[in-house]
Structures are given as C-alpha cells and as structure tokens.
Design brief:
The protein is mainly beta. Helix content is about 5%, strand content about 55%.
C-alpha cells in the first residue's frame, strides 16, 4: 500500500508542476449541474490580473449536484468544525477524537440492495463512494484544516486540486489524526488518502471521473471503565481526578478498520439536440469499482472476565475480511418534454468471511458468505415550473440475496419556502456480521438465517430561510435485525454478566421523528440558532432506544474588528437530551448494541467559542464541556464510557486561491 501511495504522490507532484504552466490564465469553461455548460455572467469575464470569483470554484457530488467553495464564517461552519467536518447534532461523541459516535437520532438507509460488511460504529470517518467529491477550479485551490486533539496529538486535513486544462481536473488529499486521549488505552490514529480525477472531452460528449482511496482507522479499545474505576469516577474520588488512573476493562486491545477502493465512472453522449428549446441528450454509461477492507480486533491476553471464555488465552486476533466488486452498464435520457430517465443493469460480487471453520460441537460455523448478485436500477426526475418529482428504484433480479427499494419525492417551490413530501419502501438482508461472525471469544461465534429487514418510510420537509426548516419522518420496520445484550452464564447456569449477540424481532416497530431549525438575528450584532428534535418509538420491547428530545441552542455576537479587517463570532452553545437507555459499544464487533440496563443522559453540554475570519482564513477556539467541573460527573457517551472533561481546543481552516 505504501508503494501505491508514493506513486500517487509522485504523480500528483508532476501534475502540480505542470499546472503552474497550464494555469497561467484562469480556466473559464465552467460546468453546471449534470455537466451542462454554465453561462458566464459579467462578473466572470476574465480580466488580466483579476482573480476569478469564488463561485467559479466548483464542488461536484457523486449525483453531479454542484456547489462552490464557501469561505464565509457562520454558525453552520462552527457546527462543522470537527473531526468529521459535518454537523454532529445527531451524534454523541466518545471521549477521544477518532472514536465512535453514539446515535442520538436514528437514520435508516432506503437505497441499499445488499448487506454491508458490519463494524458500523467504526465507519463514521470511512469515506464511502457518496462522500467523494470532484472539483472544477479556474486556478489551483488548497484547503487546509487543522485542529488540536485530546491530551497529545493533532488533526490535519489537506486538499489540493487543480485544473490542468479546462477539461481535466485532479485532486489529492490526506486526512490524518493522532490523539492520545485522557483515559487509559484510548489512543487513536487514523489516515485517509484520497485521489480524484475528472475529465470531459472538448465537445463534452465523453465524461470520466475516478477516485482511489486508502484508509486505515486504528483505535485502542478500553471497553470503558472497570466496575471499581466507574464507581470511583461517580464518587468523584480526588485520587482519580487524573483520568489516567482510571482502570479500563481492556488494557491492551486494539481495533483496526482498513480499506482501499478503486472507482471509475464514465459516460458517452450518443445523441444530442442543438435546439435550445427542444433539447435532449441520450447517454450510455459504465460504472465500476473494487473495494477490499477488513476489521481486526486483537489483544495480547484474553479478557475473559469482560468478554467471556476464549479458545486461547493469548494472541487474540479476530479478523473479518470483505471484498466487493461492481460493474454497471446502462443509459440515460435527458429530454425537455419527458424529463431525466436513467436505467442500468449491474453485477455485484461479494466475498465476506474468515480463513477457518469453527466447530463448536453442537454446530459448525462456516467461513464464507460469497456469491454474486445481478441488479436492475432506475431513476426518474422531472421539473414543471415550481413542481419537481424524483423517483429512484432498484431490485436484485438474480443471485442468493433478495432486495429491492423504491423511493419517490415531490416538491413545490413557493415564494418564501419549499415543501417536499416523499415515500419509500426497502427490503434487504441484514448486515453480514449479523449473519456470520467468528471470534476467539466463544460467545462471539454465530451463523444465522435472518429474514430481510422490511422498511416503509413517509417524510415531509419544509425549508425556508425566512421562517424555519422542519422535517417529519415516519418509519415502520418489520423483522428488524440488531445487536443486543444477552446474559452470560457459567456451567451452573448462574448469571456472570452480559455479552453482545445478534437478534431479529418479529415485532413491527414504528419510529417517528420531528426535527426543526430556526436562526434569528437581532440588535445588528447578535444572533441565535436553535435546533430541536422530538422522536418516539412504538414498540413492546425496548429495541430501538433513543432520547425523546434533543436540543441545541446557541447565542452569539458577530461584528467586524480592527477597521473591519477581521470578522469575529463569539458565543455559547448548549446541547441537551433527556435520559434514556443509551446504546452500548462493543469493541470486538465494532458495533453499538441495544441495552436496557443503564439509563444515561439529562446532562448539559456547554461549549464557549470564539471564531474569527481574516481574508480566507477562519480561526476557531472552543472551550468544550465548560460546565463539567461544576456539576455531578454524569457525562457519558455510552455505558461505562464517560465523556471528556473540560478542554480548550483550537484550529483553523485556510483556503489558498493561487
């Protein structure tokens, strides 16, 4: 892997050198949505010595939705200045950076036809295909993110992108983080390398985009605090104010999620109309990728008191492998009268499993789940004035796995707001680690034949800068598969603790969520920002556990200082959710699990921030969990896992436009 990375770095260096010559004049052939040329306006006329407008620096998603680089300073930027670089309102972070995030609000995928590998809690910072953006820039662009970590370490996310010609763009980025953490055995070290490229021919008939990613996410696993350490923490023992004295359940465990992916997406225009009033475009497309990843959990010595009996007492090493390859061919028609239509046939090959067979005496657990699936996918979009309709569907037409989904949404634009309503159905097999798992720990071996998880969803969205944003979502779920606690017993069938295992319920679950957001500005220099979510689950057994409400409220002051050379934004944010049976985290699986033994929550998370912007540089300073020294030590990220204490952290985001 190191050889490949070095090769890409050398390749990118050569490209950067070439771009110094190729980009002496700004690139002006900008692209809009769906690859169509965006007309130039007066502000975009090239004037020698004048920098292009920032709206020319385009970011293109996998769905070809286009935005531009945003260097403003706002509350949205404040909320996104974190390790994931996204708003974490719906998440409860663990004490150290790079560890998992507990879900305060549930989301259910509705466009997945096949199972995922598993280890879902370790995938928060894993770049999926939908996370990869392409770029189109008139001059080279660099985006630098830096932020301090916990105790010792730092975070860095660096991106460089350039158009060597109006038709060819590349980007190279690396996101690295190392954080020691305050608690014993919680060190994290992660690295995400990403290379992207996109090209279109001069006549715009042929388009190509590709990316390559290499990712390794390593965590020391503590298993939370031991019973004695947890009691000392709750009793506020002065001898334990140094969190390094708190004994963990696991003292030498390490987990690693490692993966690489090679992706290419290309299409060619067969037919095109030159009539601007009756335009249409017929394209054929081809998409391919290969992904290889594994999740490994290892210990020098087995922790039988915490995780149960093991087949061997030393050199614990559980490794789950997963390979996936995908090939799709199809066609799309973008027609002035019929709208946008796309359809394709795909083959997906999967290979999940282990390098051995486990014989437990009463059952033999196989080593592999491997086969191929043939799929049909289609999409439709049409806009009529203020009305827009979208539909996406897919089905497994051959293979060992059944699956299908169909989602539709209609929206209408009013003067001051947009209303969208949608519905969807989904059916797919549970994730592979629910169906098959092997471990050196005896209770972590299973093989199941679960039914497909069936989901139905209704949603309503209202978006308005003038009034408010609100989202309502109702999900009904049948045959829900999940990880949960089960009793661990000795030979005499006496209770000795809990262990995590897979379950599937035959109960129908109904999950309701209402989420609203509104911001205000007043007295010229002041503002507030409010987000509130209500949720409830109709269920007999407590399977999906969520707080009934989550709220985040900010009040801030914003003004320009030093003869308007620096924009300042400073204030305070309060986040709160009520007490509930918070999901626990299992390091062997890399998964969260449902538990009903401990209720946690009902504590304030208060952050005091001071942010500033000087030209294209944004500086962030934050005092996190500011009220923790004042109250009871009831700040928890998961059972046995306290949240971090008061900490001062700072960082910046710096954009260079050459």
């Amino acid at each position: 892997m190191s050889t490949l990375i070095k090769s890409f770095l050398l390749f990118s260096l050569l490209m950067a050198t070439a771009s110094a010559y190729a980009l002496q004049q700004p690139v002006r052939d900008n692209l809009g949505n769906n690859g169509r040329q965006r007309p130039l306006n007066n502000k975009e006329v090239s004037v020698e010595g004048e920098k292009p407008p920032i709206t020319d620096y385009l970011i293109i998603s996998q769905d070809r939705d286009t935005t531009y680089v945003d260097t403003t300073l706002s509350m949205a930027k404040e909320f996104k200045f974190n390790y994931l670089r996204q708003d974490n309102f719906e998440l409860m972070p663990f004490p150290n950076i790079g560890q998992p995030y507990n879900r305060l609000i549930k989301r259910f995928d509705m466009e997945q036809l096949t199972p995922r590998m598993g280890a879902e809690a370790r995938h928060d910072n894993y770049y999926e295909i939908s996370d990869i953006n392409d770029y189109y820039v008139p001059t080279p662009l660099t985006d630098l993110y830096f932020k301090t970590a916990i105790n010792q370490g730092q975070q860095l996310d660096a991106l460089f992108t350039s158009n060597i010609s109006p038709q060819f763009n590349f980007s190279i980025s690396y996101k690295g983080m190392r954080s020691a953490g305050d608690f014993v055995n919680t060190l994290t070290s992660t690295g995400n390398f990403k290379f992207t490229s996109n090209y279109f021919s001069k006549d715009k008939r042929y388009r190509l985009r590709l990316h390559t990613v290499f990712q390794d996410l390593s965590n020391q696993e503590s298993g939370g605090l031991s019973p004695d350490a947890l009691q000392g923490y709750l009793d506020q023992d002065e001898n334990l104010d140094d969190r390094g004295r708190l004994e963990p359940n696991l003292d030498d465990a390490v987990s690693l999620l490692d993966g690489k992916r090679f992706y290419i997406d290309q299409d060619f225009e067969l037919l095109k109309s030159a009539d601007s009033l009756k335009n249409y475009s017929l394209r054929v497309h081809n998409k391919m990728y290969f992904e290889d990843k594994f999740y490994r959990y290892e210990e020098d010595n087995a922790s039988t008191e915490f995780l149960g009996e093991a087949y061997q007492s030393t050199n614990i090493k559980d490794k789950t492998n997963y390979e996936e390859s995908y090939v799709e061919v199809g066609a799309s028609l973008d027609h002035y009268l019929f709208g946008y239509m796309k359809a394709g046939i795909a083959r997906l090959d999967y290979n999940y499993g282990y390098d051995r067979i486990v014989n437990r005496g009463t059952e033999v657990i196989t080593n592999r789940l491997a086969s191929e699936v043939y799929q049909f996918k289609a999409a439709f979009e049409k806009r009529l004035g203020v009305f827009e309709f979208q539909a996406h569907g897919g089905i497994n037409i051959a293979g060992e796995l059944d699956g299908q989904y169909l989602n539709a949404m209609a929206s209408v634009d009013f003067k001051d707001f947009t209303v969208a309503a949608g519905a969807g159905i989904s059916s797919r097999a549970p994730n592979f680690n629910l169906l098959l798992h092997q471990s050196e720990y005896e209770e972590y071996n299973w093989q199941n034949s679960f039914n497909n998880v069936e989901k139905q969803q209704l949603n309503l969205q209202v978006k308005s800068e003038k009034y408010f944003d609100v989202e309502l979502e109702v999900n009904t779920i049948q045959d829900y598969a999940y990880f949960g606690e089960r009793n661990r017993e000795d030979v005499a069938l006496d209770f000795t603790g809990y262990v995590v295992g897979p379950f599937q319920t035959d109960e129908q679950l109904t999950y309701l969520k209402i989420k609203a957001h509104k911001s205000f500005e007043f007295l010229r220099y002041f503002g507030t920002d409010h987000t509130l979510a209500f949720q409830t689950v109709d269920q007999t057994a407590d399977i999906i556990n969520v707080p009934s409400f989550v709220t985040r409220n900010s009040i801030y002051y914003k003004d320009r200082w030093f003869k308007k050379a620096m924009l300042v934004q400073t204030g305070i944010t309060l986040k709160y959710f009520d007490e509930y049976n918070m999901d626990g985290y299992d390091p062997v699986l890399g998964e969260f699990y449902s538990q009903n033994s401990v209720k946690l929550g009902a504590f304030p998370l208060v952050d005091i921030f001071f942010n500033a912007k000087i030209q294209q540089t944004r500086i962030f300073v934050k005092l996190e969990n500011a009220t923790s020294p004042l109250g009871e030590p009831n700040f928890f990220s998961a059972p046995r896992t306290p949240f971090r204490d008061l900490s001062l952290r700072f960082g910046l985001v710096w954009n260079f436009f050459l």
